[in-house]
Amino acid sequence: MAKRSHSNRALCYVRVSTVEQSKFGFSLDAQEERLRAYCQMTGLEVMELIREEGVSGSIPLGKRPAGARFLERMEAGVGHVVCLKLDRLFRDAEDALRQTKVWDRAEVTLHLVDLGGTSMNTASAMGRMFLTMMAGCAELERNLVAERTASVLAHKKQQGKVYNHTPYGFDRDGDRLVVAVDEMAMVRLMRERREDGWSLAMIADAFNCDNVPGKNGGRWYARTVKNVLENSVYQTVGAGERG
Question: What is the pLDDT of residues 37-81, one digit of tens each?
Fold first, then answer.
């Protein structure tokens, strides 16, 4: 991005995932209203407001449909990027710091409108330092959530409880997993063949040739065989040996 002179032209970006919208009412309209009010209050001219609906923040900005257009529009000459929160734009700290460094060099100021009742921008050294700290804290929180989720799933597997979709070799009985005898026999056969040197693809092909249905009647592929063999639920519950 070429360096350009300062401008009061602003490019606004709003994003919401379908889960956020349905569960929390975190709508695009509400975000847009906040951003337009902020721009009016601070004297920024809204060149364009780009809306991204139903797209996860885990996807890099440039790979989102509206996000790619947002980056293209940056080349039209803007001095400011306005967004509600950091996680609307970026997937992690590295992504945020890399992109904002590019904007700093181009003399583009990032404005975050909602930081617990206040706002910030990167026009000053203090604002840029605060952004760095905030990006790191946001990534820490995401990592902690991922760790807690993994811990809960591991505990449910160990207790033989339903933790996601019903794995091959089991049926559901309320919130518990119970052994599906015919499927578990196939799990044992799968292990035996793997120990005998069969490749994942060979096991999948043999199951398909023998008309062994996957879960919900699906076909077998190397990756589905791999998922079964690596799923810790068979070891923690011990059903593979008991079934």
Answer: 999 999 999 999 999 988 887 788 888 999 899 988 888 788 999
Of 193, 198, 190, residue with least CA distance to 224: 190
Residue 206 contacts residue 221 (beta carbons within 8 Å)? no
Q: What is the pLDDT of residue 160?
A: 45
Q: pLDDT-derived band of residue 215, with 50, 70 and 90 as boundaries?
A: confident
Report d(CA 195, CA 92) in Å as an integer.
40
**Distance in angstroms (rounded) separating the CA atoms of residues 26 and 62:** 22
Query: The pTM is what?
Result: 0.53
- Measured between alpha carbons, how far is residue 217 from residues 172, 183, 211, 220, 225 in Å? 16, 12, 10, 10, 14
Each residue of 26-58: b (16+ CB within 10 Å) or e? Answer: bebeebbebbbebbeeeebebbebbebeebebe
Residue type, 231: N
Instruction: Tokens for 196, please give them.
Output: 């005998």
CB of 143 closer than 8 Å to CB of 154: no
Beta carbons within 10 angstroms of residue 98's beta carbon: 11
Could you tell me what percentage of the chain is helix, strand and coil, using 3-state DSSP and rounding each to the nearest 5?
55, 15, 30
Structure-token pair, residue 57: 């923040």
- Domains of the chain, each with CATH number or no CATH: 9-147 (3.40.50.1390), 159-242 (3.90.1750.20)
How many Å apart are CA 112 and CA 106, to the nearest integer? 18
